[in-house]
Amino acid sequence: MQFHNNRSGRCGNELGLAQTAAGARPDGLLFPHPSNRATVKELFHRIVEDYYTWHGQCTGSPDTAPTAPHDAPEHRQGPGPGMDAVCRVVGELSGRLSHASVPWPSPMYLAQMTGDTPIAASLAYLCGMLYNPNNVTPEASPVTTELEHEVSDDLCRLLGYGARGWAHLSSGGHSANYEAIWIARNLRAVPQALAEHPGTRDLVSHHAPATLVNLGVDEVLALLDAASARDVREEVLRLAADIRRRGGLSDAKLLVARTAHYAWHKCVDLLGIGAGNTEWLEVDDGHRMDLSAVRNRVHAHLRRGQPIVAVVACAGSSGEGSVDDLDGILRLRQECEREYGASFYIHVDAAFGGYCRALCLDPAGDMLPYAEVSRLIHPAVLKQEVYDAFRALPRTDSATVDPHKNGHIPYPAGALAVRDRRLVSLIASGSAPYFGHGDGRRLPFGPHTLEGARPGAAAAAVWAAHQLTRPDCTGYGRVLAGCLATAQELHHRCRTRGVLRVMGREFRLVSRFEPDLNIVNLTVQPTQVLPGDDMGVVNLKVLEGLRADALADPHGQPWVSSNELASGDGASAGLHALRLCVMQEFDPPTLDMVWRSLREAISRQLAAVVAEPPAT
Amino acid sequence: MQFHNNRSGRCGNELGLAQTAAGARPDGLLFPHPSNRATVKELFHRIVEDYYTWHGQCTGSPDTAPTAPHDAPEHRQGPGPGMDAVCRVVGELSGRLSHASVPWPSPMYLAQMTGDTPIAASLAYLCGMLYNPNNVTPEASPVTTELEHEVSDDLCRLLGYGARGWAHLSSGGHSANYEAIWIARNLRAVPQALAEHPGTRDLVSHHAPATLVNLGVDEVLALLDAASARDVREEVLRLAADIRRRGGLSDAKLLVARTAHYAWHKCVDLLGIGAGNTEWLEVDDGHRMDLSAVRNRVHAHLRRGQPIVAVVACAGSSGEGSVDDLDGILRLRQECEREYGASFYIHVDAAFGGYCRALCLDPAGDMLPYAEVSRLIHPAVLKQEVYDAFRALPRTDSATVDPHKNGHIPYPAGALAVRDRRLVSLIASGSAPYFGHGDGRRLPFGPHTLEGARPGAAAAAVWAAHQLTRPDCTGYGRVLAGCLATAQELHHRCRTRGVLRVMGREFRLVSRFEPDLNIVNLTVQPTQVLPGDDMGVVNLKVLEGLRADALADPHGQPWVSSNELASGDGASAGLHALRLCVMQEFDPPTLDMVWRSLREAISRQLAAVVAEPPAT
């Protein structure tokens, strides 16, 4: 097996940029290309045929198509607008979208975490959408609920959660993260409820109060099973809710890296944890959560019997793509369990980076040895530390992983996965009385998700993409290795070819740190700082200029986004970096073209800034 | 203007059932029909053409289509699966969906709140989805964010919230309801924070503590504006969060009707209000919230200074379609404001019924006089009480209204609307640093929604549907009047033609109450009760039998769902009703056919139950 041929220069189709003649990019995903236009149209045809046949069966209309040409006048009898009005509105929409949409498929697009969507995912979404299934209950989605169960198995395998795990799709990372912390928050109150309930008190009487508040996840789940056996589980859970309501856990802390997604601010407010209980931890030079900061906080809390809702780690922080040291955090947890008999819940926000674990997986879902990963993809692509974090991930408690980010699926396709499916019973609610009940083999989705109605089309899209591109080293692993390699190449070019000469001055493009995944953060620095240089202002002006130019010429200019750097090397703190999110692999000519365009565009912005008279 | 012609018997196209020859149903919506198959295919063609042209511009591929036929061998060079594999997977999906999907378009489908999806909505969703916009920020959705602003205006007009209102789409009713109560919960802690903060204390010092905890919504908003003017608004909000965290509002109550959607159980747990603080109020014979129960609870709480998070009313309860007496609840609020100087937040769960307000609106969004509504649609279709509730709705504080229910849009398309856009600042969070900022004219969506990533395709679908079918009496009003009329016709047929003779016994189909909207609840009753008759068991068995038969023969049998009746007439309580959710208007022949099928299917189930030997 030999991935990643293009890095050796063997792939260089200059006409189609990063695409082969048939629309297959070097990473193996199939995107629109003139050569597959006819086939895609034919597939649309077939989907529409199937849909009309089904529709005719539903309504009792004759299911033979009329032979009249499509532009024959339609003798409408209804009072509403006719097909001519549909054509007008849809035509306007199609025109507006094709005129002004964000050019995700372009290699020059390096801003948000959205790339091109593979043909299979788009067609599957369309196909599912026409039948409008709702995965809240199999009664409303006999086909796509089954597909979501398969996707659930795939995602658990991807994250290493195994047979006890469970996953479901969500509208996005926000909901998935809320749901994880909802579980963790509810779990945290259970030990106290067990201690208060006369039917379970004996089960926890050997624990000191300080230990009890931070009992380990597996122990709490086992105790709940014991409560079930005594038929008091529901009472215990109600008591736990009451303890929370009374403010019994009003000082429970959530530990999150400072680089965490802005959704975490919403999360702690929504769930009533409170900003005051949220500890935003420092990050290190690589923008990973600083392990000594976690250690200090966790030890302090456990020693004092201060409850911890969860430690939230990132596997691919949204600003930097940094992967926290999950192995270190898990070792810290073991250490605490030995020292205090107390523990904490670990949630991983792998919304962006979760699919990258595919680089390390063989088709059975087992971790490849690091040497093998290196050999299969490219020696430098996956850092040992990132590999170690992915190897540790299966021991964490839950993880958000969004197919609509590095999975390349159209919105909406977020997901939450849990290591032990018993966890979701902590948020389970009675299902609506007008839904029937599942067959018991599979955990029903409706009562165990934060959301209710969920489009079955999203499950169809993820399922189809996974059918063609497996979430392991043969599929997504190869695709994402290409993105990582391209990000690293951009990082290295800054090091070796990052000098810009503008209006007689010399600047450098600085990549702030070697990327863990497929995001690069650049800033512009002068080789010699002159009096009056304010690089914070300069970088911000460069960013604003790039953004304005890209909006003015969407197909001709590079698109980047900005990222306010949390810390890292002291010099970065508070600086607005140019954030490049690489959602596709570049072959060498494309890389050269993008690199040249970036240099030129940044130089042009710098020239404008340098030429400005200093503010008075 | 003359709506609803088919009720006078003038429309009776028996070939196409409820459709005219060109696929326009009598209600004016356009659905798939053999006569528009060619046009729809042509539209797909055009959408795909536009998409490929855009894609070529993005990737630099030549944008002329090759002349090779679609089945020419493709000389793929990439390592991944080719178009043959895409065809196989998408073909399998299309086949499975067309074989086993739920027959929403069929008039025999009367189970969940999902109907047929109009062509325009499906095509617009597809068209939007291909460009994969994300309405979290206009940077990721320049076209569809603009469309969502138009939809926001439409939804505010539909609910009567006017120019100060604001609305946004969500993944569904769950999220929208969570968000509303998140706002209400946060608002409730603000007065106490104002009293504690040294910079605002004087603003509320004239209020007694018991009044302070339940200050009115508008007064709290005005006080927050005053805090803004003093530059302490953020401090006050942080203090409010801290008060909540400390359990300062641990006894705040949420008042919800017993018929409320099961999502409310999730909601009170998620937001930390707690099941113990949730008061499930009785309903009256029409399954509307019992106003005297609300009055008793609210007076008791306000008198004692017990905080009320919100009173949640329904405009279309999900089990029964009942519309609560919003006018009565609002008069109660005024009464309390006079008596105690205290008030409460009113949220309306109009997820199902919100679009029915269109029956009462002229194209400018103003309420038509009741006599005019009666004259325009049909004298009996809209009850005076329901009209009064819709007239009162604009004075409530927020409402959930789901385009993917009575708006006939594909999933996911829920929505939340607020009367005063300042309300959403109570949950606002800083936006991600890598997003740019809006132009100030419009409230940006990302920082003001519970969810983050939201598919722009959903906004495109709602926008397109609203372009063709306005949310007023000329558009959705006409569509939904037809659904209501059909539901009422089914109700009346039970009264007049509901006798079933089975195995020598006589039973009656009983519609439990005259429906407010388009849901009918039926039970089966024997004319003479015999010893051993357990009608709870009989109704449940009939339901289970109907469900099994529909699954076995999706296109030949009626589909109903079950509903456990909360109360109403004493005899109903706890009974499992056959719930018919009418998502389309029937012309007379269709109505006869559905009625006959229902009678036959129920009689068949009854025969099986009656023939069973009694349980020993």
Structural class of chain A: alpha/beta
**End-to-end gap of chain A:** 63 Å
Largest sheet of chain A: 7 strands, mixed
What global shape of chain A is seen? globular
Number of strands of chain A: 12
Identify the CATH architecture of the domain at 254-342 and 353-396 in chain A: 3-Layer(aba) Sandwich
CATH class of the domain at 254-342 and 353-396 in chain A: Alpha Beta
Total helical segments of chain A: 19
For the largest sheet of chain A, list the strands in their spatial order. 1-7-6-5-4-2-3
Roughly what is the average pLDDT of chain A, rounded to an integer?
88
- Name the assembly state: homodimer
The CATH superfamily of the domain at 254-342 and 353-396 in chain A is Type I PLP-dependent aspartate aminotransferase-like (Major domain)
Range of helix content of chain A:
40-55%
